[in-house]
């Protein structure tokens, strides 16, 4: 398929569907080779007479169509370009369709597919049309009744959405199950699962005293690994009741783990289907971060039950309506779990750990997207393939846009806005604008005469805004004025439009504090209140605020808690950053000050890579690092964040032109110097943070301790300290949990190409070859190791455990190498390998291939040699004769 033939869908072309489908009945004759689906649709016309009824279908064999019981001849309907058109003559009728699909041949993992010996479905965004002919769009909502028939030996368990009405054995030896979902839903939330599973369950009583059953299904034998997931689910249910007053509306809520899954998980009504990586965990096979990721994803999918399912999207341009909001909710859930049982500064620092991780993700994944050829607003204006718009912008920046509304309205105001949103829209398919309007109804009460007009532009403008800060102190009047100015530059395709339209200002909540020269917080008067942190609402190009009673020239603490997804431009002395690093009471801004210090140092190093002698690291940085490392008041988890230098990728983003070799070299130089200069401190903290043999739990305190322990080992290895390797070997073989074991192994593999590291890798494989999720880690570790080349990856692809068809495996080896191994991939062989893999994957799974195709979106910003080679790779992909719509959209935008 080629770009010029692929239609572009525009947000402004939305038209309501002219029919209602109140009831849908589906019967499945399940079989891996060929599944027959009989559908019966009750249809009512909404619009004018004589409107054709158009249904979507893809890779289906149509067997029969009947209107009000009468079978139609081929002349009575149209079948063209994946659309089945019927010409009804009455205002209400029933349509019966029989069709076939082929699950075993479906490697795209969209629609009905086979994973292992089981059957699963994935319908978001447009997978339902691979199951049966249907108006496959989110604003068509129906009640589903589903009958599943299959061989009971191969498929003893038959699940679908809602409640199980009946089960029966059939005369032909098969069995059947009938499910009914009482809640009307769009087709993308349909699901079915068939196979043999183990189940772990727990009965709960909701806030409103309703009984419900929570169930986690997984492969037989893995039921020992679902305790944590079930615990997370129970806590998710409680949290949504307590924080948002939202109760479970089902009698049973099921989560099923699948080995082959394109994404993290899917929120199908009452029957969530998960990538097994976000379900299965025990102390021997899962790291602390895997435990936290499971908590986040279980929470995320559960929270969709209200934000996504009860209120859904009118069309796919509104995707961030459910995703941005639900990511915000899962972030808050995770933060609340980290801060549980803590108060005051300790709680704030625990929450900051989550905030730091989320902001790092945003900066690594979303900022580059917003600056590259795929830049789009959180509510895109157009697409060729909607699967390409499940992006960091829609999800992560979308969550930031929700978070800003929370920051502006406050917790109580936001809650009032959410209540209003459900009061207005429960049961409906709505738009992002509907959400903002509900929030605005609260904003107007709080701020008579104002509105959220400027705020709404966050939904229509792409690009990361830059906020310039100027501070002016007047000693005579003891006043300090703060001027904020915003710049919103053209990005992505906007740059091709001429004349360049000036982009209007956004509503930016900017949290600010001022410290005196001793590092003490200065109380600030603002809006009739006195506080250490004030929220400045920047709504124009430039605004100035004046603070009085400021005894001396202050040091500003900017964009506290990252109150808006912007880049701050400010001139700051090193000394100010060092003061903030020691004293800022906002733990996020404190971390940021340390990052900024390290980034400046790293950038200086990138500029001198060519020189003979690499410059020494500024002793004040080393001093700052040492103080933080030895600070008894900081939690171990927070310390791990503040003492980690920015990643190679973050640094690369800041070089201009982008120079991967320089970024890699500078990063390694800094970490070696930090390792050497503080070697005895890393060693003593390493020893003091050793785990005891008591029972493992993934709680924040002990996992924080483990993360700091592993960080110390990492710096000691970077320094080439004589004790480091023996410690890593001992930690690897002596570990009693996967976090410590991986810490030891990755220290070995990342820093020493030694017999010990090869031995440990072999030992690890022997030990874990039966556990696919652990073997994913084994592949990923090697893919990201410094000495790894294309040759290494190619030989790992020949390993019997490798398969391109399993998305987790492809991600762990190929994506890991292409996206995270800067040293290995930024070579001409690396780019060639990448292009080959995009083409190979595209023949199997376009969704996954299109994600890999985005690895070098920012090719045009690189140094000339890299740039030309990446461009050649993109062109080679584009010229391939059988490209999917997914990959074709990505490469054509990249080359524009
Ligand atoms: N809606 C899912 C989520 O974010 C993501 C997803 C999209 C999964 C498309 C599969 C396919 O929770
Ligand atoms: Zn989601």
From TrEMBL:
UniProt signal peptide: none
Keyword Magnesium: no
Catalysed reactions, semicolon-separated: Release of an N-terminal amino acid, Xaa-|-Yaa- from a peptide, amide or arylamide. Xaa is preferably Ala, but may be most amino acids including Pro (slow action). When a terminal hydrophobic residue is followed by a prolyl residue, the two may be released as an intact Xaa-Pro dipeptide
InterPro entries cross-referenced by the UniProt entry: Aminopeptidase_N-like_N (IPR045357), Aminopeptidase_N-like_N_sf (IPR042097), PepN_Ig-like_sf (IPR038438), Peptidase_M1 (IPR001930), Peptidase_M1_dom (IPR014782), Peptidase_M1_pepN (IPR012779), Peptidase_M1_pepN_C (IPR024601), Peptidase_M1_pepN_C_sf (IPR037144)
One GO molecular-function entry: zinc ion binding
Source species, domain of life: Bacteria
Ranges of residues in domain Peptidase M1 membrane alanine aminopeptidase: 228-455
Transmembrane segments: none
Domain Aminopeptidase N-like N-terminal: 26-189
Pfam families associated with the record: DUF3458, DUF3458_C, Peptidase_M1, Peptidase_M1_N
Ranges of residues in domain Peptidase M1 alanyl aminopeptidase Ig-like fold: 463-569
EC number(s) given by UniProt: 3.4.11.2
Every Peptidase M1 alanyl aminopeptidase C-terminal domain range: 575-896
Record's keyword terms, sorted: Aminopeptidase, Hydrolase, Metal-binding, Metalloprotease, Protease, Zinc
Biological process annotations from GO: proteolysis
Keyword Zinc appears in the UniProt entry: yes
Family: Belongs to the peptidase M1 family.
Protein name: Aminopeptidase N
């Amino acid at each position: 398929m080629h770009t010029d033939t692929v239609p572009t869908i525009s947000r402004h072309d939305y038209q309501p569907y002219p029919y209602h489908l109140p009831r849908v009945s589906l019967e499945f004759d399940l079989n891996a080779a060929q599944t027959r689906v009989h559908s019966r649709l009750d249809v009512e016309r909404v619009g004018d007479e004589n409107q054709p009824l158009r249904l979507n279908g893809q890779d289906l064999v149509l067997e029969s169509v009947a209107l009000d019981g009468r079978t139609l001849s081929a002349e009575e309907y149209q079948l063209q370009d994946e659309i089945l058109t019927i010409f009804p003559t009455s205002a209400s009728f029933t349509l019966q369709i029989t069709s076939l699909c082929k699950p075993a041949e479906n490697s795209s993992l969209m629609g009905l597919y086979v994973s292992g010996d089981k059957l699963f479905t994935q319908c978001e965004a447009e997978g339902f049309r691979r199951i049966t002919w249907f108006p496959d769009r989110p604003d068509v909502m129906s009640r589903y009744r589903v009958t599943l028939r299959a061989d009971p030996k191969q498929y003893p368990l038959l699940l679908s959405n809602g409640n199980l009405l009946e089960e029966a054995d059939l005369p032909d030896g098969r069995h059947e199950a009938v499910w009914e979902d009482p809640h009307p839903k769009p087709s993308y939330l349909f699901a079915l699962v068939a196979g043999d599973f183990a189940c772990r369950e727990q009965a709960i009583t909701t806030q409103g005293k309703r009984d419900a059953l929570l169930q986690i299904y997984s492969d037989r034998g893995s039921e020992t690994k679902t305790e944590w997931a079930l615990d997370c689910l129970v806590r998710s249910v409680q949290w949504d009741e307590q924080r948002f007053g939202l109760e479970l509306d089902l009698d049973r809520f099921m989560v099923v783990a699948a080995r082959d899954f394109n994404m993290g998980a899917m929120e199908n009504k009452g029957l969530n289907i998960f990538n097994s990586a976000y379900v299965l965990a025990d102390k021997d096979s899962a790291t602390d971060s895997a435990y936290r990721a499971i908590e986040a994803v279980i929470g995320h999918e559960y929270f969709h039950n209200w934000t996504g399912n009860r209120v859904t999207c009118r069309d796919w341009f509104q995707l961030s309506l459910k995703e941005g909001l639900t990511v915000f909710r899962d972030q808050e859930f995770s933060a609340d779990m980290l801060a549980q049982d803590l108060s005051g500064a300790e709680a704030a620092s625990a929450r900051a750990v989550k905030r730091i991780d989320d902001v790092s993700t945003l900066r690594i994944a979303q900022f580059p997207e917003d600056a590259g050829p795929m830049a789009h607003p959180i509510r895109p204006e157009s697409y060729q393939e909607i699967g390409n718009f499940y992006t960091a912008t829609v999800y992560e920046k979308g969550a930031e846009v929700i978070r800003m509304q929370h920051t502006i309205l406050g917790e109580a105001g936001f809650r009032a806005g959410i209540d209003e949103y459900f009061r207005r829209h429960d049961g409906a398919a709505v738009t992002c604008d509907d959400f903002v309007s509900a929030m605005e109804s609260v904003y107007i009460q709080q701020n008579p005469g104002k509105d959220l007009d400027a705020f709404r532009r966050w939904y229509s403008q792409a690009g990361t805004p830059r906020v310039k800060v100027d501070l002016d102190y007047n000693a005579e009047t003891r006043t300090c004025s703060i001027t904020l100015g915003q710049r919103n530059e053209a990005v992505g395709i906007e740059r091709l439009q001429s004349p360049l339209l000036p982009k209007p200002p956004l509503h930016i909540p900017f949290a600010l504090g001022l410290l005196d020269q001793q590092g003490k917080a200065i109380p600030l008067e603002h809006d009739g209140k006195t506080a250490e942190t004030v929220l400045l609402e920047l709504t124009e190009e430039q605004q100035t605020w004046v603070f009085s009673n400021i005894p001396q020239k202050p040091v500003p603490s900017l964009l506290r808690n990252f109150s808006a997804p912007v880049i701050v431009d400010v001139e700051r002395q090193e000394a100010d950053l060092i003061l903030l690093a020691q004293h800022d009471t906002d733990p996020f801004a404190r971390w940021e000050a340390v990052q900024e210090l390290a980034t400046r140092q790293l950038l200086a190093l990138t500029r001198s890579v060519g020189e003979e002698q690499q410059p020494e690291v500024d002793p004040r940085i080393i001093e700052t690092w040492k103080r933080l490392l030895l600070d008894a008041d900081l939690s171990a988890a927070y310390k791990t964040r503040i003492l980690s230098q920015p990643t190679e990728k973050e640094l690369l983003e800041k070089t201009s032109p982008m120079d991967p070799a320089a970024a890699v070299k500078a990063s390694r130089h800094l970490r070696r110097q930090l390792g050497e200069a503080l070697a005895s401190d890393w060693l003593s903290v390493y020893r003091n943070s050793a785990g005891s043999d008591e029972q493992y739990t993934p709680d924040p305190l002990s996992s924080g301790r483990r993360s700091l322990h592993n960080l110390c080992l990492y710096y000691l290895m970077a320094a080439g300290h004589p004790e480091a390797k023996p410690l890593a070997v001992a930690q690897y073989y002596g570990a009693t949990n996967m976090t410590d074991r991986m810490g030891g192994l990755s220290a070995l593999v990342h820093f020493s190409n030694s017999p010990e590291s090869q031995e440990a890798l072999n030992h690890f494989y022997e030990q874990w070859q039966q556990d696919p999720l652990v073997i994913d880690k084994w592949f990923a570790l090697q893919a990201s190791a410094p000495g790894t080349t294309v040759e290494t990856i190619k030989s790992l692809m020949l390993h019997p455990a490798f398969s391109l068809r399993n998305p987790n495996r492809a991600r762990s080896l190929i994506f890991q190498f292409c996206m995270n191994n800067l040293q290995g991939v930024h070579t001409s062989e690396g780019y060639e390998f990448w292009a080959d893999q995009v083409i190979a994957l595209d023949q199997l799974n376009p969704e996954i291939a299109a994600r890999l195709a985005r690895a070098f979106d920012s090719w045009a910003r690189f140094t000339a040699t890299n740039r030309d080679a990446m461009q050649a790779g993109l062109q080679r992909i584009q010229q391939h004769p059988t490209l999917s719509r997914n990959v074709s959209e990505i490469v054509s935008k990249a080359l524009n």
